Amino acid sequence: MASHDATDPQRRVIIIGAGVAGSLAARRLAESGIQVTMLDPALPFPLDPERRGALYMKPAVDYNPETRLAHQAFLAAPEFYTRLQTEHPEIDFWSGTGTLSLAWNEREQQRQEKLLARNQWNPEFLEPVDSDRASLLSGLELGVPGLWFPGGGHIRVDALRQAALSHPLIRVITAVADGGRIQPDTDFWRLALPEGGTLEASTLVVATGAATNEWAPNLPLGRIRGQLTTLPATSAAPKVALAGAGYALPPFHGRVCVGATFDRDSGLGTPDAPSDRANIENLGHWLPALAGQLEENHDPGHWVGFRSTTPDHMPVAGHLNDRFVLAGLGGKGLMYAPLLAEHLTALISGSPSPLPADAAQRVSPLRFFKS
Ligand SMILES: Cc1cc2nc3c(=O)[nH]c(=O)nc-3n(C[C@H](O)[C@H](O)[C@H](O)COP(=O)(O)OP(=O)(O)OC[C@H]3O[C@@H](n4cnc5c(N)ncnc54)[C@H](O)[C@@H]3O)c2cc1C
């Protein structure tokens, strides 16, 4: 284990935001012997069983830089989640069931055929399956083929955050970070502690998801509302994570999860019934075998959040002026967060990054400021 000096501000990082990205970054930094102080008003969070997500990806037909990064991230994620789950068996967050991406309409079928014709994929990463095998894997009568990602799965997001933050070098403070609480000094960032006194840290990481523009006002980030819906499971429930024009996740505590809406023009921070209806209606288009069962039910659960988005669809991880930024993970935070947490830790600690140099440039916040 790396030795550390708890009083040395050089080995201390403040992270604002204990979402998926901030929590995983905190974990990787702590694992490298760095003291982390984490601020989020929602800590210690009540675990919300409704907040769930899929580990999924949609490779482009041509192996472009975005797909290359997603491929690397998708390989790193199950390894990270399996290790973290093994270290915290008391917090059940990871189900490595695999993810099946359905060729649910003709267009998607043609896209998947092209993707297979133009690329060689290792079957441990991606394997085409016919409709019989897809039905066998999923436990549903699908009637369509698909792409099988054995490394995929589904995640209880709040439980993941809790497991990640359970490390002796991570301190969590339940507070909103603002300019009154955190200030730059000549050499260090100063954080006013709730019990009085200040803490000095060499590094500040902003990981505030869709609120990141408060701390990095010039970044061209967007925000898109999303709502997912959970419903009581019937006998026709998926056994693996399914992706199509949305996703459907196996039962947890007797409820399946379907999602999620993309509400570009809505700032509504609470769940609403039209979003639940939209999720179920959308499911009818791409997964009728499940939708037909669920429509009978009228007891929806839900979770609402805002995705942080970028104009080039690439996430943001790197140095910007006097701080580090980790944001813009869009609708794929569960895939990107483990790899980007590793990258950020490497940048901060001076160790080698897992990202090739061109990928590091593509995710750097500085890419938006080049002429
Ligand atoms: C409905 C929905 C479904 C989704 N489904 C999936 C899925 O299936 N798979 C997937 O990979 N991704 C999914 N996503 C996307 C995923 O949730 C995001 O990519 C991920 O949450 C991004 O993580 P983050 O840490 O950057 O942001 P967040 O998870 O949003 O976390 C940001 C944190 O910062 C805190 N914060 C903000 N401002 C401050 C401040 N001033 N001081 C202190 N703390 C602050 C907030 O309280 C929050 O905890 C979904 C998103 C939505 C909305």
Characterize the structure shown.
With 371 residues, the chain is of the alpha+beta class. It is 30% helix and 25% strand. The chain has an eight-stranded mixed β-sheet, with helices on both faces. A six-stranded mixed β-sheet has the order 9-2-1-13-20-19. α1 (20-31) packs parallel to α8 and α6 packs antiparallel against α7.
* Major sheet: 8 strands, mixed
The number of E-state strands comes to: 20
Q: Specify the helix fraction band.
A: 25-40%
Poorly predicted residue ranges: none
- How would you describe the shape? globular
CATH hierarchy: architecture of the largest domain: 3-Layer(bba) Sandwich
Number of helices: 9
What CATH first level of the largest domain would be assigned?
Alpha Beta
pLDDT average, as an integer?
Answer: 94
The name of the CATH topology of the largest domain is FAD/NAD(P)-binding domain
Order of strands in the sheet with most strands: 6-7-5-15-16-17-14-18
Tell me the domain tally: 2
> In sequence order, what are the helices and strands, one letter per element?
EHEEHEEHEHEEHEEEEEEEEEHHEEEHH
The proportion of strand residues reads 25-35%
Radius of gyration: 21 Å
Distance between the termini: 44 Å
| The CATH fourth-level homologous superfamily of the largest domain | FAD/NAD(P)-binding domain
- Global structural class: alpha+beta
Bound molecules: flavin-adenine dinucleotide
